[in-house]
Every structure is written in structure tokens, then in C-alpha cells.
Please model this.
Amino acid sequence: MKKTNNFSAKENAEKPFKDKACKAGTLFSKPLSALTVAIAALTGSVLTTNPVYAAFNIPTDLPASPLTINGKTAAPFSAKMVMFEEFGVKNYQDLTGEVPAMPQLPPVAGGCDSMPNGADLDSFLSQTLFPLPTKQANENTNAYDPAHPEDDDHYLENAWEQKVEDCYPSLGDIHSNTEGRPTGEFFEHQRYEDFPSKGYFQTAMTGARTNGGLRDLNQRHQYSKGEFAPGGLYYIDANGDGIPGTKGVDIKMHPNLPAQDPHKVWTFDGTLPPKLLMARYGETLLFRHYNALPIDEAANGGFGLHTISTHEHNGHNPAESDGFAGAFFYPGQYYDYHWPMVLAGHDSVNIGATDPWAGAPNDDGGNTLVRGDWRETMSTHWFHDHMVDFTAQNVYKGNAAMMNYYSAIDRGREPATVTEAQGNGTSPSGHRADGWGCNYANPASPNLCLPSGSNLDWGNRDYDVNLLVADKAWDKAGQLKFNIFNTDGFLGDHMTVNWIYKPYMEVRKRKYRFRILNGSVSRIMKIAIVDSAGNKLKYHMIGNDGNLMEYAIPFPNTESPEALPQQSIAERYDIIVDFSQPIIGNVYFVNIQEHTNGRGPSKVIPLASILSGAYKADYKNGDPAVGKFLELRLKGCGANGTSACTDLSMNPADYEPGKKNLVVRPKFTTEELKTAKHRSFEFVRVVTTDNKPWAIKTDGGLGLNADMSSVSAAPQSTGPEGSVEIWHIKSNAGWLHPVHVHFEEGQILYRDGKTPPSWEKYARKDMYRVGGPGPLPDLSQRVDMAIRVREFAGTYVEHCHNTQHEDHAMLLRWDSMHPGQTIPLPSPELGWEGVTYNQTSTLPSYLTGDTKAAKDFIIPPQ
Amino acid sequence: MKKHNVVRYLQGKIYGCLLICVMFALGACPTWAAPKDSPWGGDYFPNIELTDQDGKKHKFYDGLIKDKVVAINFIYTHCGDSCPVETANLKRVYALLEDRMGKDIFFYSISIDPKHDTPRVLKEYSERFKVGHGWTFLTGKKADTILLRKKLGLYNSEGEKKLSDHNTNFIIGNDNSGRWVKKTPYDEPMTLAWALGYSLSKNKIMPGGKHAKYTDAKPLPNINKAEEMFRYRCSSCHSLGRGSGLGPGLYGVTLQRDRTWLKRWIKEPDKMLAEKDPIAIDLYNRYNKVLMPNLRLNDSDVEALIDYLDSTANPNRHAH
Model:
């Protein structure tokens, strides 16, 4: 049976699981085993007669993922979608100076290949932060005295140090710090005194387990308000003990698929639902991330690496807390990320904090005003792993969370009454709740009153729903699977939303905001929204890459008649859909873009041929991930879901181009653009001696691969207003490269020399799709964008966010430099015992940029 | 030099490593306590038969990969451009890891042109590159090596019409941990040495960055474009001094050679060799028949490089 002259990953890749499969097989009598095979054949799991390199190499170099396992079938739209679970931010003031009486240390796993017991981990994570955070990485060496636990300068070694020595005898005697952040001045928290922490949360990255209810009491809705309350659409009592919460939720992609093995899926807390951070401007956060992954790097289920780095995607954060790919930490260690939560422009705009539009909810119907430029307000972020060479595997494995920013304009609160909409509501403490007032009712009110809910002062999620869309693949046993060797890109064959295979969700007949994140490895989607009769719904895009746009763009439109625009990996689109419009049956989200491999999409499939079944998404004739992937079932309001719904949220049609602004886009002056430094980044095939598509040419230089110790660009601020630059991002590769720039968002000036489409013209972006296989809508070979770098310094990166390309070294390092700083930071090289700093080198143009591009560029009118 | 600290630490490791290796040899040292959990083992990799430059036969998985830290690339010996660059760069990595080569770290260069690359040809090729122990050149059946390349993700998925279309990336990995990472011929040798000698090998390394301060950071030389080119494209074979590497040291080369000749030699060495230019042939013979690769440089790149070479040998002249 074994073919050796024909590449067939199907046959061989599955063998490690043969033992398990055989054990499972013994549960059945022999005749039943034959039946199992027949079922498997019917469900498409046996495609072994087809070569892997067929027209559709999906899932990439793997056999099809079976939907029937052990006689149970996961049918589309039969599993309920899970809602994100909040981390729960706690008050930092409560813990200052306070050390737990009996501090727990991170629980140690029993074996080198295992992870801590879930209950022990929950108990540990429930205590306050110990040890207290420090400005520079904690490397205290004083002996811990149990008689004086109040001393905060204990010798705090990595609590797993002994275990590490046991597991890796070749390491000998090691001294591993409790904090894995690179030590010393280079990675100390910038402006730590300027931005004292106000909130904190901690979690551990660890293997899949049953949710122990760790965060059940930290949900803002407390399972007692709105749709999260008993009788609401999202009420959950997972273990049926009468106490609401997610305690008892397993990591299953469908109730009929098996729970994931702890080596296969690694998530925050090791649990589902996926996690959400609800953050507010001005509430500086201290995020302690423990690494509770196996000490033995081989215990990864075939993909993923046990050292991690956490990137807050598009955060205006100092570099040491940005999740630099080279600043990773080891099992047993933590890394303290310090996220100031400031508006860009903090140092130069609205420095008196008097602008009522620059603020954040104060828990009592009003706003706490903050410094900075309100036009820079951000909304929908995510944070995810950024481990050098292993980002694709780790993110695919589950190292991804979403993060909603709440602000004066995007408060997550719609009015319950017309009085509230007018700004005359009454806050919990009896004050006038002007923060609840709506911009549509009173132009002096900053709150846009986007669809959300009205039970909480801010952050209502009843009608404001995070959707993490990603394609996945799994093996015969239903365990998550990945091919690490194919660096063209990795595609799964099944679409998931919030980790659930083709789920359904119940919605009210009213307006909703969806925050859609493409969390795939290499799949670029295009999402259409239709009803059961195939009618396209009307909806608006209000946010692009997590930033509210200047205007709400109605869809479908002449520029994009069938669906939302191309949505590459990491792009976020916030949309508002009104389910009170005429709808026949259910509503479906449909992926209409086809891939044949992971290099980039091949074509957009006409919606009609998908809905009619003319397009066969059967692996042979079509991409299995094309088609409907989310079903929305309509319900009215009231106890029986029969009444009409009260909906006083804003009407996006009032904010279409030419009407009211959602936000005003921050502008660059013509002078700034004229004097801007230009840089060019070409995502290319190397043209020196070979032609392989994973290199970047900076400023017309050589095609190079990632080198963490080499700086390709270093914008230098000369004052608080920062450095304005124009970056030219290009591709000639034929493959599609969704390029991500860390730290600062940009504005697209041109796409292939033309004004970008409306959803980009009015947007601030952190993702810039370039290249692609040919005539696809809304793609281009070139993007010219303007960017302003300010407030923080240090080492950041820019890379292709097809993470298989990124890990194959399509990444460059750029540094933001302080005024007066003349050399870039030394480069960290990390081991179990800490950091070695190596000398950094630079490309010749790292300060000057691309002077030729500057000469040729025509500044668009501002 | 970049990454001087790492060099020092890796070199400092030699004695400790020797000790560990001796312990391994005596069977006294516990093996890495890695319970095998990787699907990328003997069941995944084809156990094809390959023949080395000495005519010895090996099973790919059982003989070459199992329990080892390895770097694998695919070459053909009459390849003019990419293979010499790749081999030259790997040679620099080799030099950094020399004391561990053949003990716990192994390099394999596998021919994709078995018809031409007989063991004898490979032997001669390895001698040309002055390759030592722990680096094996291998050949096997064409279909087998294609299968192997596909399994390693190193087959050119866009099609391979001629040998020079082959995927020039290579892969480093550790069978014990199932950790495999693709690299390119242009990666920093030090980065690769770190990955092979430390990250993949689970070796101890002493930290050197405690209490690091910004004021201690060393200023950077302000390098120009020609220096960049030299560093990334030339330095694997040539030094700026008199000492030879795979190619001649370039001290004073602009005084020794006519500028027009030098310009063409840098730009299209393949053509000059084909035309049997006497100096080119002489260099080819003197430097072990290692081909000077065509790096696809344009005229201004070449001019800048020559100016740079000129300025390094003549401090009074300045690159312009």
C-alpha cells in the first residue's frame, strides 16, 4: 500500500496516531469497523486515491478533515456559536504594596511533556500579582525568606527551574529568572512613571482543558444582564449546575467532535471560549502573561513552539510591550506587558485633556478625559503570538485573543430611552449621564451610540459581537492538525467562527455590530451576507482594521457589489447589520473567495453559483472553505421573541459619505507630506541567484530575509509631533502578501497610483494587501501610505501576515528612535537563562530612506 | 563583527560540549528526556537510500536524521550561481560549529542531479569546498530525492523545468524535538549557528546581557550600500584582507586588475568562464574550481562595489 514514488502525506502523516486510532477501533466489533470505514468514505475523509497536489491542495498537504468521527457527525449549523469570554480587568491600586500572605508560585507540571493541573493553575491565577511588576525585568537575587513574605525582593527564580534541569540534563545547573523579559535598560518599561498601571489581568498560555470557571465572576454582564442573563440569547450554564458560566466548556469545535488534546491546542488559560480584553483609554494595563506550556519542546503535537511572545496588534504601545518577535519567554516564566492605553498624539495634541471627545467611560454615565488626539481613537484589536519562526503554528494553535477599546465615541452603550439619547439620562449614582447621550440626537455628544446594549455603563456586548473567523484542519481522530513544511501557506478545509465549526447564532430583529477578524494562517476571505432566499442584505462597514472610519460605507455598493472587500489575515472589519430589514428565513455569512493553495486567493466565485450549488466545494472541483459558514437565526424581542425590538442605536445611514462623521480622520499637513521621509519595501522574489518569493527589498536594496539584529528603517522623531513618513509597499511576486506594520497605523494615499476605494480612503489601516495572482477586485501591486511615528521608541517589525510567509523570514525590523538617539538598540538573544545582547547592524538607508522614491512622488491634495 | 558575544559563547561551549559528548559516548549521560510526540519522525520521512561521497550507503531517516540535529540542502555540483553561495554560507556556519560537527550536528548536501553527481563527483566537490567531517554529500535515485524534497517542503511548488529552478532554501531541524525551520542561503551564519548549536540542541548558554545599559551600547559604523552588498553577497567567499577563503582575499584587487576586466568579472563571471578568459580560468583553477557566481548585480552596484574595494585598500581614496 505504501507508495514511495509518489508524494502522499496522507498515508504517512497520520501514522503517529495509528495507535490511538487502533485503540479506538477496538471499541467496535470487526463488522462495525468496516462500517466506520464506509462512513468515513462517504464523508469525504478518504480522499487517498487523489494525489495531494491536486488542483486544490486543501487542507495543505494533509488529508481532508473528517466530519464524522466515532460514528458522530458534525453537521453544519448544528452547533451554537460561543461568545467571547472577558479576561476581566482588576484594579491595580488594590494590589500596590500588597503581597499575598501565602503567595502561590506557578504550579509545576508533573512531567516534562505535560502541563500544570487545571485547578492548580486556576487557583494560582486567581491570586493577585506576585511578585509585583517592576520597571526592568525582575531579576532579583535576594534569597526568599518564608518568615518574611512581605519582602518584595525575594530571589525569584523561574518556579519551574528544577523541573527544567530534570528535563534537560544537558543544560546542567541553570538560573532562570521568574520574568522572561530581556533584562536591563533596553527592555525596561518606557515612561513607566508617566503611565502608572491602573488595571491588570493575568493569564497563562497552556494546553487545552475543560474550563474551570476561572472568569465566571469577572464578566461585566455577570450573567445577569441583557442577553447574557437567564432567558437571554447568550446565557450559559455549561455544566448545568444552576450557576451560570463557562465552567465545564470543553475545547470542542463541535459537540460531536472530540475535545482537543492539550498538546494540540494552546490557548489563554487553556480554555474556550476565546478570550476578550475590554480596555478603556486612560486605564493603563499591566498584562502578566505566564508561559505554562510543556518544558519539553517535543510535546507540541507536531506543531507550535513552547517559547512565546505576545503582540498587541496595532497597539500604540512602547516597543518592549509590543511583542517583538525576538523577545520571547520560556515555560515557567512570565512577561509583563505594559500597555499605556493612550491616544496617539498624547505628547502634542490636547495636552490639557480638555477635549470632551478624547475620553473614556467613567463607570457612571460620564467620561474621564484623556490627553491626545481623539481622531486617533481605536476600537477593535487582537493580540496574538509573535514568536520568531513560529507565529503561524502558535496562532493557529490558539494563541490569539481579541481586544476591544472603549472610548468616549465608541462606548459600547446605546440609549435605553429617548431621554438618555438626549444626554438627560440618570447615572447609577444619580448624576446626569451625558456620556450616554447620542451624537445623532445632539451633535455635541461624542458617543456614537453604536449597536451594543444599554444594561451597562459601557462595554455592552448584547448586540456588539466579536467574530473570530478561521479555517482549520484536523486529523482522523478530530485533533487539530498543521503541516509545518509547506511555506507557500497553510489552508484548512473547514471554516470556524469563535472556534466552532460552521456554527449558528440567534439574533434579534434589530441592529448589530459585528467585529470580524480573519484569524487564519494564509486564507484571504471575502464575506457576503445573504438570507435563505439568496437575497443580499444591506449593511454598513464602520471600522477597518479596528479603527472607526470617517464615514459608514454602505454595502453592497458599486465598488463591491457582492460582498465585503478582500479580508486578509489579521484585517478587522466592523460592520452594522440591521436584521429588521426584510429577510426571508435565516441569514448566512458566505465566503466567496477561492484558494487553490496558500500563496494567495485564486478567484472570487459568483455568489449565485455558490448558492445554487453550481460551485462544488468538494475538494476536487472547488475549495471546501468556500460557502456558507455562519447561520444567523432571527428572533424578535420580549420573553417569547415575538415582540418588536426597541432599538435606539444609531442609524449608520446617517453617517454615509457626505453626511455626519463617525470620526474625523487625523490629517497630515501638505508641508509634512512634502518633507516626509520616504521608504520603500518591496515584498519580492529574491532576484540574486534565485527567484524565491519570501524576501523584502528595502529602499531598492538587496532582497533580504528576516534578521532580528539588523535595522532596515529607523524613523527619528524630532519633536513631540513625531516623524511623518511615506512608505511605499510593493510586491512583484504574483503571490499575495498582506503586509502589517507594527505600532503606528497609516493612511493609504494611493493604490496602484489611484485613489483607494471608499472603505480605505476614509480609513486608518495597519494591514496593506499587495500583490496577488491577477485580476481580483480590490487588490493592487502597490500601496503608498503615510504614517506618523511618535511617543514611544524601540524595536518593532513589519512583515507579511500570511504567517507561513512571515515565519519563512518575510519580516524586517524597524526601530522608532527618540530625539537625539543615534544608535538602534542592541539585539536580544534569549535562552533559558536570560538574554545576551548582540550588536545591532543596519541597512545603509535606515536613516535616509528611499531618496529616489521621494523625488518621484506626487503628494495628493490634503 | 556582528554577534561577537554569541561567537564567544558558542566557542566557550566547546569544552562543556565535549564533556557532554564524551558522557554520551560512555553511555553515562541521560539522553534528552524527550518523549517522542512528533508526527515528523520515521513515519513521515521517507527512509530512502542515499550514497555518500565515499560510496557508503545510508538510509535517510534511520541513518542520517534519527536523533540528530541537522541542516539539509539540495544542490547540484555544476550549478553556477546559487549553490556556491549556499555552500559557502553553510561553510561559515560549519566553521562556527566545527567542534560539534559530526558529533551531534550534521550537515547534508543532497544532489538533485544524480545522473551527473556520482559519489566521485561529490567527493571532488566536497574537496573543492574543503569540507570536513560531519558534512556529507549524498546522491540517490531522482524519484527518491524528489519525494524527499516534497516531504521537506523544499520542492519548488511552482514547477521545476530546469535544475536551476530548484528551491534553494534549506532546512534545519532536530528529529528528537520534531522542530524544523526553513532557512535561506542568505541568512546570517551566526543566526544559523545559534539556531543549530543552541536553540535546536538544548544547550546551556550563559547570559551576557544582565544590567545592560543603553550607554554601554556600541555605536554603529555607518555602512554604505556597497558594504551592505559585500556583507550579504560577497563575504561568504572573500575577505577584504589578503587571506584566502573559498575565493581570493581582495586586498588591493583594484590595483592588481584592470577596472574594465574587474567590472565584467563581477557582473558576469559565468560568461567570462564560458569564453575561457585566461585570468578567469586561472582563478577558477587556483581556487579549487569553485565557480564565481553571477549575483545579478547591475552596473551601478558593480561600480559601487569596486569603489568600495578600492577604498578599503587605499585609505586615501574615498568611495563615491
